[in-house]
Amino acid sequence: MSITLLHTADWQLGKPFGSIEGDTAALLREERFEAVKRIAASAQERSVDAVLVAGDVFDSATTPDHTVRRALEAMKAYSGPWVLLPGNHDPAIPESPWTRLKRIGLPDNIIPALVPETILLADDRLAVLPAPLARKNEPDDVTQWMDTAQTPPDIVRVGLAHGSVSNRLPEGDAKNMIADDRAATANLDYLALGDWHGTLEIAPKTWYSGTPEPDRFPRNDPGNVLLVTIEELGATPKLEKVSIGRFQWCRREVACGVGGDEDPTTAIKAAIEDAVDRPDDTLLHLTVSGTVDLAGRQRIESCLDLWQARLKYLNRDLESLIDEPSADDLDAIDKSGFVRTAVDRLKDTADDSADPERDVARTALRILYHEHVAAGS
Amino acid sequence: MLFRRIEISAFRCFKDRVVIDAIGDGITLLVGDNEEGKSTVLAALQTVLFEKHGVGGAVANAMLPYGSKVRPEITLEFDHDGVNYRLYKAFCQKPEADLKAESGARWSGDAAEEKIREMLEFTPPSKGGAKPDHRGLQALFWVEQGSAYGQPYLNETAKSSLAGALEAEIGTITGGERGRTLIKRIDSRMNEILTPKNRKPAGTYKDAISQATEARGRRDELATRLKNFESKIDVLTKERELLAKLETDDPIGAADKRLEKAKVAVRNVEGLESSRITAEANLKTAQSENKLAETRLDQRQKNRREAKTADQAVAKLKREESAAQDATNGAQKAFDHAEEAHGEARTTLEAAQQDATAARRMADLLRKSEELEAAQVRLKKAETADQKATSLTAKANASPFTQKALEELRRLDGNAREAMARLQAVATRLELAPDKGRRALIDCEAIEAEALTLTEPTRIKLEGYGAIRVTPGGEDLSSRRETAEAAATELKLELDQHGIDNLQDAVRQGGERESWLTEAAIHSTTVKAHAPKGLDALRNEVAGVEAEVRRIEEDMTDGEVPEITANEASDFADDLAQKLKSAETEERRASDDLKETKGVLLTATNDLTGGTNRRKEGEKTAKSLRAALDQIAEETSDNDLNKALDDAIKAVQVASKKVDEIEKALTEIDPDGARRELETATEARGKVEKNLQALRQKVRDREVELRTLGQDDTAAELEIAEGELARAEAQEARLSHEAEALTLLHDTLVGEEQVARETFLGPVRDRIEPYLKRLFPGSELVLDDQTLKITHLRRDGQDEPYERLSIGTREQLAVLVRLAFADLLNENGKQSPIILDDAMVFSDDGRLDEMQRILDRAAERLQILVLTCHERAYFERGWATKRLQDCRG
């Protein structure tokens, strides 16, 4: 009776990573196919009854044939059934990766679930009830049909959908809503969901698997697939979270100037080292905030330059790091003379919260400090 | 440092010892004549302080008095920081240096040199002699002869001392070189992203703006492309839904049914319309027959009316013919009368014409006769005057004394006189004053005159004495004499030729000749007045008038000329001409009357002929009509015509009723509506099928199109473009902010530098101002804050560059600046004597006087040594004076 499923979602194959500059974007794009290969290998290894992909297999409706073919290639290692659900990124519109898949010709074990009709698998022991999206935003709950879907008796009913579970998600937009009690009302043994990129149990018997390869600086838990075992009808399914992702996307915040005289780079270095264990596979978004003197800022920038070379990708956000030139900074530029007078004037402007040129004056002081250091060297 | 005593020996022009002692704090005037050694004193001071005692070569040789090999020695006693020192140096042979302080401290050799260097803070040369750069502050304050008008020389020591003093004075110092380096670097960074002049985006900043614009364009284009794709997807979805619905509803079947129904309705309409055409044709036939009967009846009545009318017309025409006959008779009478009147008027006119012609001829004859008489008188006067003019001119032409001849005579006379005068001028004049009873004789002739003018050697006998021979002039006299004689001879010959004795006769006869010519000219004028075109023309004119008079006389038939004037005859002729004009008018009026009556007669005759013809034609017509009427009535009677008309009216009524019935039936079934419905239904059937096919085609086309568009990966490209745009915009914003920051930084630095410069020179300006206002009131002296050189003098708002000022003004300003620098340094503990070697030689008296006052004032604080050869110029000031000649040992 036991049914084992591999639940995954949000592959978004072909995602271009436009916000990441340089060669890293191409690596990230490529790695998503590698993740699918790892999923296929894992499914094959564990001999699951089916792999359910809960939407957003492809990144967009204009995903080209080449990407579609590569997807098929990546799935090859698992010969069991793959049920692929259109999500909001790849809805089943008249021209889409799904129509292309059909034109290219697909193996029998690849089952695009393009209409809300029951799919019987595992020798009719498993009924998959898909709720495909036929457009980006469906105003109605497309899982509603599951409540009245007729299936043979004594069969495992598993729902497959893509969207936001009403009132449950900590963030995200309210599109493609799914009732939070759908598993109960539709008498489902498991409701496999996609759209939320972290692994999350959102309601009883209702899970988001998350994306198998992280694609953003998360505040959740991406990089996994779920291995779902349903021992018997009505039983709570057993879940195993299997890590699949390669790249680590980390987010860290460091506040400067709070502790006093401590070198700001010490805290930054500590935060990075704490976050990163494989620098070459790590993308880091680092926010440095607080106040810093000009010498400190220069040290911070040197420190970050070093880490930028070491990490796969570093996104530094110093918008909230405010310059607070110290007496030493200013003395370093000049202790007296007209340069010092100019420095003092700029400092007055920078310290005046009502002055519209405040930020400009801060930057001017920073430039002057840089030039002073450069001229000195 | 303050000088107290200088002792020099065996140095340059001082072979012997020279001592200048008791030098006070203020001004000391060192007076010496040219080449007495003032400048040597200055050289000695420079040597003892700045030349090393061991210096050799040309520097040492220059110290030696000319032609001697001695040991130059210089001793300088001075106060420094309140301590008295004695510096002794000997050069060339056994060189030596020795410095002693009053405290007893003593330095010798190089230690003495080093101590001096330390006290005066100068940099000695590494080898050779000391140049201005090696003389510390003294290079600034010791002004050598002939160089006072140049810029004060500031070596590094002077600059650093002044900068130190200025720093001490103003508390803060400028950023100096370092600040300027920073400004340059900021400038350079600004120039990388902003244009230097207008500060517009340039370089990387400009590139960033372009890149952001391009990225935005690319993003927008991709977004549009994607939106286009998505909207086409939406359209395709709707079209597919529509197509599916249509294929279920079978709109073609519905259209077919509607079409069949419309066809049946139209066939019904067409049957009724055919019946109506037949009924209408019947009606038209009946109506035509009715009309024919009515026409025949009308024609019969019309023929009757015409016959009657023709009879009435004949009667009227007869009356008109009779009236025309009467009118013709009247017109003939009027014409005859007019013809008679015209004959009479013609006769009167011819008589008047003859009278008028005769009178005009008489008047012409009388006028021409008067004209002939006047012309004959003028001819006579002209001929008389002409004879006189001809005679006088001939007489004048016979005289030889023309203007030219007179001029020649005058010239010869003048020559003779001038030659004689020239001879007389060189002749020897001999005045005789014989004793009583004595005489002088020439050729034994006693000389009566008191004086003689001798032009040739003459022997004169003097009674009681003997003879003397006077030989006047020389060669010149004899040539003048010859000239005089030749001139006299030439004049004589000319006079003889004209047969006169002297020039006066010639002049008189020349005057007579001129008066004859004048008189002849007056007579010629008279001739011209009477015969302006010449005498012959006047004679021809007289002959012409005579011929005309004869011709008129011949023309006159009666030949008798009445005793009246020409004007009276003319008036008579005018009266007759007036009468002729009246006769002509009368004749024209009679002629017009004749023409008019003739026209009236013609018209009346024509009317009569026309009336007769019309009357005959009318009679003919009336007869014909009557005959025709009689013939028709015989063929068909009036009763037959009336019956035919009644039958036709009844037939029309029957046919009309039938037509009405059919019309009513057609109105009830709406034939137009039925036909329109058939058209619409036919069209609709076609359209439905066409639309369905078009929709199917459209769906297929769109599917094909979207299949291509869907391959473009537009969504991914858009995301990449958005990423690029975000980065480009961030870069643009960063550079914009940086540009603002650099601009603010630059402007702030430059502004503060300007303020600092002005502050920096404040103390120097403060020191110069009291001196300057004495010499150039209301002016300002501007120095360069970097080089401390004088750039210009600002007077009355005008900046005058230093180099363009007069030499005198320059030397005064250069001294003032040195005084100000010295004051500044003095107040900051650095004292140096000022030496002015003939420094104000270009100053005028007024300025020199003022400069002396200024020096007086400065000397309250400064030690000043003035070297001059003009003691008098400074005498009145009462300054301590040392005369070099008194200083020699």
Could you describe the 3D structure shown?
With 377 residues, chain A is α/β, with parallel strands linked by helices. In chain A, 32% of the residues lie in helices and 24% in strands. Chain A has 10 helices and 18 strands. Chain A has helices at residues 24-46, 65-75, 97-104, 145-148, 182-185, 264-275, 294-310, 327-333, 337-351, 358-376; strands at 3-8, 50-53, 82-84, 110-112, 119-121, 126-131, 156-162, 164-165, 177-178, 190-194, 200-203, 206-208, 224-230, 238-243, 248-256, 282-292, 313-317, 321-323. In chain A, the strands form 4 sheets. Chain A has a 6-stranded mixed β-sheet, with no helix packed on it. The longest helix of chain A has 23 residues, at 24-46. The mean pLDDT of chain A is 92. Chain B has a 6-stranded antiparallel β-sheet with strand order 2-1-4-5-6-7, covered by helices on one side. The model of chain B has no long low-confidence stretch (mean pLDDT 86). Chain B is an alpha+beta fold and 889 residues long. Chain B is 68% helix and 10% strand. Chain B has 21 helices and 20 strands. At the A-B interface, helix 3, helix 9 and helix 10 of A face helix 6, helix 7, helix 15 and helix 16 of B.
At a glance:
The complex is a heterodimer of chains A (377) and B (889). By secondary structure, chain A is of the alpha/beta class.
Features:
heterodimer, A: 377 residues, alpha/beta, 6-stranded mixed sheet, 24% strand, B: alpha+beta
List the helices and strands and how they pair.
The complex is a heterodimer of chains A (377) and B (889).
Chain A lengths: L2 E6 L15 H23 L3 E4 L11 H11 L6 E3 L12 H8 L5 E3 L6 E3 L4 E6 L13 H4 L7 E7 L1 E2 L11 E2 L3 H4 L4 E5 L5 E4 L2 E3 L15 E7 L7 E6 L4 E9 L7 H12 L6 E11 L1 H17 L2 E5 L3 E3 L3 H7 L3 H15 L6 H19 L1
Parallel strand pairs in A: 1-2, 2-3, 3-4, 6-7, 7-10, 8-9, 10-12, 15-16, 16-17, 16-18
Antiparallel strand pairs in A: 1-13, 5-6, 11-12, 13-14
Chain B lengths: L1 E8 L8 E3 L6 E5 L6 H13 L6 H7 L9 E8 L2 E8 L5 E6 L4 E3 H12 L17 H4 E2 L12 H15 L5 H18 L9 H47 L1 H148 L4 H24 L1 E4 L8 E3 L2 E2 L4 E4 L3 E5 L3 E5 L4 H24 L4 H28 L4 H21 L10 H70 L2 H32 L1 H39 L4 H47 L1 H14 L4 E4 L6 E6 L2 E4 L5 H21 L6 E4 L7 H14 L5 E5 L2 H5 L4 E4 H4 L2
Parallel strand pairs in B: 3-19, 3-20, 8-18, 18-19
Antiparallel strand pairs in B: 1-2, 1-4, 4-5, 5-6, 6-7, 9-12, 10-11, 10-13, 13-14, 15-16, 16-17
Helix pairs in contact in B: 5-18, 6-16, 7-15, 7-16, 8-11, 8-12, 8-13, 8-14, 8-15, 9-10, 9-11, 17-18, 18-19
